[in-house]
Amino acid sequence: MKVLIAEDDSVSRLILSRLLEKEGYEVVTTTSGLEAWDILKQDGAPRLAVLDWMMPGMEGPAVCQHVRKSAHGAYTYIVLLTSKDAMPDLIEGFESGADDYLTKPLNPEELKVRLRAGIRILKLEDDLVAAREEMQFKATHDALTGLWNRATILDMLQRDVSRARRESNSVTILLCDIDHFKSVNDTHGHAVGDEVLREAARRFVNAVRDYDVVGRYGGEEFLILLPGCPSKKNPCRAEQIRHFFSARPFQTSAGALNVTISVGAVATVDWQSAGVEELIRNADTALYRAKNAGRNRVEIASPDSGTQLETPDAHLIDLPTRGE
Amino acid sequence: MILSRQSLDMNLVTKSGPVLDTGDLLERIGGDGELLDELAAAFHRDSPQQAERLRSAVALGDAREVTQAAHSLKGALASLGAVRARALASELEQMGKRGDLAAAAELCAALEREITHVGQALEKLCVEVPR
After folding, report:
1. pLDDT, tens digit, for every residue of A44-56?
2. Could you give the ipTM of this predicted complex?
């Protein structure tokens, strides 16, 4: 554990650093408040700091204020040192963001236990941050495949469509459905079905560019967003992905399985006024055409091909939730 | 081995208390003779400059500088367990804060004499503490 000691008096600094070195701390020392602030604002800075209250340049409480205001990354636990006869305003010290204070000359045992209390606080902080990050991940990702979940991929679609229209670009949406997935589950069991879904996710991610987005839309349905992919290239990109997906058999605990997908594709450039729900409905209609035409193929929804659902109450049709 | 507080104090006690509270100092540094050498060296190196800074500030009537210089010396003297010198530095710091330097020159001279005694007591302690 690294600890910063900021103390302008060399005698006090020596005693403090030897004491903490013997306790196994990695000690960084400085003689001024300004230097202390320089050190604490760097990446990988000590997260424990023992700061003298009165220092030339910048006093301990001012260093605290700077650290708290910048609030970058991990928490820094700060102990201020004061002299016991001329006790400064402790309220000022704590309001500046200090966690604790000690009076000089230091009682070594007291210093040790106070720093251990600080380490406990830092550990709690780390656990809390890790838990928050895990919750954030779980709220946005599909547990089985690790892909973006349905709600998140739909948010991204909305955002990408809005941006593409603002910038006169296109987004291509691929709705991909694993062919005969039900029979994989029925024949080999759900555990093998899950293996296929995980491998499918992996292949989709490997098949697209860094800035494309893959999400699990439903049971065996996946939604892929290809930003900046013009309409004319649709068949090409979608075909590449379909081909990549089924190029090699899936290795599962039930042996090698040949798995293919059907794809319904829609490009926003072909449907300038369509909302997200309508775009997905059109992709879904194209996907059904691909299924009906024998599976393992790509169908493109375009206004000329008659896939558009021109019903007056189209907005009343629910989003497809097949397979959920 | 830490020397007993009594045997050392017998040598250092003056009429207004010990120059160094050696028992307290040795306890706080865990009887570490090498650290004691380093502390003595740091004190011999830095205290003349700090005393000089304080003396000039008093001569110039710079109350703010008196406060800071006295505070800095006070920290070192407190860490060494130099009880009397620390009390003098603390008094000078208070004078600086009040902006009343009338008796500062006299007090400063007393502090400088005391710092010399602290230096001598430290040297003596370095010889006495086994390592």
Report:
1. 899 999 999 988 8
2. 0.84
